[in-house]
């Protein structure tokens, strides 16, 4: 795992250096660009289409399907970077590329919908068999994208889509673990989330009207509406997932779930030193994980030195903290 993370950091560093080099090439007059008189675009286009994707391939050795998905994402990001890096007066190739933005967006949207339909159908079939939504989503994503590269992002997005739009009868869902503990009622957690969603709904027509009246370009108000609805999808998914995705105690580990916007954690019992009640006044600092949402922190889990470095403390916000503490202590 550490090797995988190391490769990711190296890849990010190399790509950052490539972008920095292109930034200086397009923004700083020197010999290579004839002191600003000749700024060729083809080196950046070559890096976007070939060099960076090949670097990704040789560093991570993905399957063909994973590589093609990653290549499409890198090309899209590279074209956007070129749009920002290249001065308007130096755009020639990029001006032609920018004229194709609408077909590109439509094609990518069609691909997203196609993949979404395929995965949703598979998830529904798996849910009928087990009822375990996490396992169904992971199986569907990993069977299509593998376990590395694009897969974690795809899994995150699928959880958003599932809980935001497709989930029905949450009480029928099953999750790994022998004991489950909720966090939706703690200090009105999900009620507060619902209030924010309703405020956004009430505010959207007003903001649309204001932008329509004040902006010279009429499409601005519609773009704002689309972005608001897109952001609301994430909030709705978080709201609905918070009601059903529990913190669980399994045979060998603590399974921390906290809505869908936070990364799930698996904490082996042998790295847990102690668990106690805590106050809500825990500030962000290095070595701490807080799973609060809109409730109040009430459980502190201390980890053994080196158990999950650099994490030393985990704080949870649960509906029944005392019952959780007793159950976890019994397993340590």
Distance between the termini: 26 Å
The number of domains is 4
Q: What's the helix count?
A: 10
- Low-pLDDT ranges: none
Walk across the major sheet and give the strand order: 1-2-3-4
User: Compute the gyration radius: what is it?
Assistant: 24 Å
Helix content: 55-70%
Shape: globular
Strand content: 5-15%
Which structural class matches the secondary elements?
Answer: alpha+beta
Largest sheet: 4 strands, antiparallel
What average pLDDT do the residues reach? Answer: 83
Order of SSEs, N→C? HHHHHHHEHHEEEEEEEH
Q: Would you report the number of β strands?
A: 8
Keywords: Membrane, Transmembrane, Transmembrane helix
Transmembrane segments: 9-26, 42-60, 67-86, 101-120, 194-213, 219-237
């Amino acid at each position: 795992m550490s090797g995988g993370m190391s490769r990711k950091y190296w890849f990010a560093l190399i790509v950052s250096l490539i972008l920095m080099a292109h930034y200086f090439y397009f923004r700083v007059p020197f010999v290579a660009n004839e002191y600003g008189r000749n700024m060729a675009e083809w080196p950046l286009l070559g890096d976007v289409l070939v060099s960076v994707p090949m670097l990704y391939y040789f560093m991570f050795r993905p399957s063909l399907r994973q590589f093609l998905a990653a290549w499409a994402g890198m090309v899209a990001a590279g074209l956007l970077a070129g749009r920002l890096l290249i001065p308007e007066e130096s755009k020639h190739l990029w001006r032609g590329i920018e004229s194709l933005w609408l077909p590109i967006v439509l094609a990518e949207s069609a691909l997203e919908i196609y993949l979404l339909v395929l995965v949703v159908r598979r998830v529904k079939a798996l849910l009928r068999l087990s009822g375990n939504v996490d396992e169904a989503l992971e199986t569907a994503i990993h069977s299509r994208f593998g376990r590395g590269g694009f897969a974690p992002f795809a899994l995150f997005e699928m959880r958003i889509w599932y809980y935001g739009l497709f989930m029905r009868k949450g009480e029928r869902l099953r999750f790994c673990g022998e004991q489950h503990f909720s966090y939706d009622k703690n200090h009105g957690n999900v009620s507060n989330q619902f209030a924010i969603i309703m405020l956004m709904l009430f505010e959207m027509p007003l903001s649309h009207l204001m932008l329509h009246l004040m902006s010279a370009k009429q499409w601005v108000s519609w773009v704002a509406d689309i972005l608001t609805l897109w952001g609301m999808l994430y909030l709705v998914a978080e709201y609905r997932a918070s009601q059903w995705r529990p913190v669980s105690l399994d045979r060998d580990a603590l399974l921390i779930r906290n809505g869908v916007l936070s990364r799930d954690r698996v904490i082996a019992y042998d790295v847990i030193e102690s668990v106690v009640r805590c106050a809500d006044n825990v500030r962000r600092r290095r070595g701490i994980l807080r799973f609060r949402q809109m409730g109040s922190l009430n459980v502190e889990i201390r980890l053994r030195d080196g158990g999950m470095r650099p994490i030393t403390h985990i704080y949870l916000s649960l509906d029944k903290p005392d019952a959780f503490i007793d159950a976890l202590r019994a397993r340590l």
